[in-house]
Recover the amino acids of this structure.
């Protein structure tokens, strides 16, 4: 077992601090004071932190309500509870390992809000749990809670080789859908191995025509790319019954006018943010996590196999994620 690295000075810890809104290249590894938990927070010793496009968006200032620099970066975190806030009802015991979407995840320690955090599945390591709340829960919510997928329907998944995309491919297949996966050609073999029925070149110059020629119109689109794909998503969705679930904009904001919706595209636009779902509809979020836990018990959702990196490598990996050259899940281990 890797022992936690001792901070340089008592009460200090290593963390990745974002210094500007000019991208992940301005993220630096430095020593800062170790936090104390607030009354509704846990203090956890970070075992693994997930790298996601939301982290890139924050470094560019394009994430809605995101922090202003300087700030400790990182959304997705899993680790060991070492202190408990005074107002948490029925808290996880000291020594429990929990996962959720917090803040200041790219550090040796993190004070995280109690709401939305769940226990790491029995027998899973911290690294194997990465993706449970952000990637798999988002994919499940996009397909089921918001997208209302049904067996026999056709689902188009953009950015299908990423963390959410790969989870969505597996889940859509499990629920009986026909899966059309869009990704760069270099990633097609990964998606075929996951069971996608059709794999589409995401960079085709006439993306909508390519999809229609190969698959016809689709019932549900999982849209996380934005500017580069939103028009195609609307064009290939079935009129009136087709749903387009928007939960990201990795290529920049997309736009659809009211005239587009009235006279040209008649698909249903739906939106998703997993953190907002947890905050605004806790009963629905709890049901989502219960369904996810059942999928774990049945082996539909196996332990993850993320590519792990040291904290110091975080900025470079985020730059590769922004460039669209990563595949699958990546994470940071503060002990490396």
């Amino acid at each position: 077992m890797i022992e936690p690295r001792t901070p340089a000075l008592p009460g200090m810890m290593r963390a990745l601090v974002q210094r500007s809104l000019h991208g992940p290249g301005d993220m630096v590894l430095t020593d800062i004071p170790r936090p104390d938990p607030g009354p509704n927070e846990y203090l956890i010793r970070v075992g693994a932190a997930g790298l996601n496009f939301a982290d890139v968006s924050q470094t560019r200032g394009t994430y809605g309500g995101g922090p202003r620099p300087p700030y400790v970066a990182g959304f997705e975190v899993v680790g060991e509870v070492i202190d408990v806030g005074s107002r948490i009802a029925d808290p996880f015991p000291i020594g429990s390992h929990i996962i959720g979407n917090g803040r200041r995840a790219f550090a040796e320690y993190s004070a995280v809000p109690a709401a939305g955090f769940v226990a790491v599945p029995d027998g899973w390591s911290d690294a194997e749990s990465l993706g449970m709340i952000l990637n798999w829960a988002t994919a499940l919510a996009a397909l089921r809670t918001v997208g209302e997928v049904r067996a026999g329907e056709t689902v188009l998944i953009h950015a299908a080789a990423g963390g959410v995309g790969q989870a969505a491919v597996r889940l859509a297949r499990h629920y009986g859908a026909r899966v059309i996966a869009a990704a760069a050609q270099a990633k097609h073999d990964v998606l075929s191995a996951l069971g996608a029925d059709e794999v589409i070149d995401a960079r085709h110059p006439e993306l909508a025509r390519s999809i229609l020629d190969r698959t016809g119109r689709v019932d549900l689109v999982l849209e996380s790319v934005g500017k580069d794909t939103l028009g195609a998503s609307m064009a290939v969705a079935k009129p009136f019954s087709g749903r387009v679930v928007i939960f990201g904009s990795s290529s920049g904001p997309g736009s659809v006018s009211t005239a587009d919706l009235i006279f040209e595209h008649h698909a249903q636009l739906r939106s998703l943010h997993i953190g907002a779902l947890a905050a605004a509809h806790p009963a629905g979020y709890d049901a989502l996590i219960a369904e996810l836990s059942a999928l774990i018990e049945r082996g539909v959702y196996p332990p993850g196999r993320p590519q792990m990196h040291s904290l110091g490598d975080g900025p470079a990996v985020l730059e590769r994620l922004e460039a669209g050259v990563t595949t699958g899940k990546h994470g940071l281990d503060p002990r490396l």
Observations:
- The first strand starts at residue 12 and ends at 18.
- The mean pLDDT is 94.
- The chain has eleven helices and 16 strands.
